[in-house]
Amino acid sequence: MTPAMLLVTIRGRVQGVGYRAWIEHQATSARLEGWVRNRRDGSVEALFAGPARAVADLVALCRHGPPAARVTEVLTEPAVADQLDLRHPGERFSVLPTV
Q1: pTM of the model
Q2: Angstrom distance (rounded) from CA 83 to CA 70
Q3: Residues 11, 13, 31, 38: which is the catalytic one?
Q4: Is the per-residue pLDDT at 1 higher than 70?
Q5: Which residue from 5, 19, 61, 97 has the least number of CB within 10 angstroms?
């Protein structure tokens, strides 16, 4: 399996609707590594690392999100290994503070 690492920005009504917890659950279930956090501009940002197919599947799920979310845009860009180091020590997937 080819590994992939993507930085994903999700826009719309994605804060205050459980989006970060939903992403954490989805990523953990898919055995992906990475992190998720709110941004002050109202978006949610996440980094997903793992098998390319599993990363692509989670990005596709992000286009819908949890039931109360209303996603208007999902942007992806390649991530670098240093970005993965933002996780909390010892965690495969972290929920990070707002930036």
Answers
A1: 0.95
A2: 27
A3: 38
A4: no
A5: 97
